[in-house]
Every structure is written in C-alpha cells, then in structure tokens.
Write a structure and sequence with these properties.
The chain is α+β, with helices and mostly antiparallel strands. The protein has one domain (8-91): 3-Layer(aba) Sandwich (Aminopeptidase), CATH 3.40.630. The chain is 25% helix and 32% strand. The protein has helices at 52-66, 76-84; strands at residues 8-10, 15-20, 23-32, 35-42, 70-73. It has a five-stranded mixed β-sheet with strand order 1-2-3-4-5. The chain is globular and about 35 Å long.
Length: 96
C-alpha cells in the first residue's frame, strides 16, 4: 500500500492530519523527547472500510522513521497495526 501524500504533522495540535475527500483524519500524539505516544486514530465513519486508518498510520510511521524518532502505541488501532506490520517493530520504544 503506497504511503499517502498530504499527511502533515501539526505539532501545535499534537497530531498528524490528513484531509481525505473533505474529511479530517488524524493521529493524535503526546511527545516525550524523541518519542511520540500515539494515543488516538480518528477516521470519520464516512471513510470507514477503505483502509484510510492503515494508510494514515503507515504514513505517520514513515515520517517518524525519517526523523529518527520512535513511537509508543497507546491507541488500540495502532497496536493492531504494529502487530500486523512487524517491519515497523524497530520504531517501537519501551513505554518506560
């Protein structure tokens, strides 16, 4: 699945945003140093069932990797995504 264009980190809102078909999708996070605690993935029901959440989390992982940062998965959707994508395991930081 290709990584979508247009996923933007908005630090002032502590979230990544992606506008899809006029709808805001988002991954909210809390930053602790160089670790992002991903605590919420929001995809409007109008976009449900299209793999939008998976594409969004994939794009977030790509940006985190490019910046040399790590993640802690708090959101159940992100936890499931990481379980299904073991190639992302090196991004996961210990939640200590």
């Amino acid at each position: 699945m290709p990584i979508p264009d247009g996923v933007v980190d908005v630090p002032a809102r502590q979230r990544f945003e992606w506008i899809v078909a006029g709808h805001l999708t988002q991954v909210r996070y809390r930053r602790v140093g160089r670790v992002l605690w991903l605590d919420y993935v929001g995809v409007p029901s109008a976009l449900g069932g299209r793999g939008i959440g998976t594409q969004l989390v994939s794009a977030v992982c790509a940006q985190v990797r490019a910046r040399g940062e790590r993640i802690v998965a708090v959101c159940p959707f992100v936890v499931r995504y990481l379980a299904q994508h073991p190639e992302q395991a090196d991004l996961v930081a210990s939640p200590e």
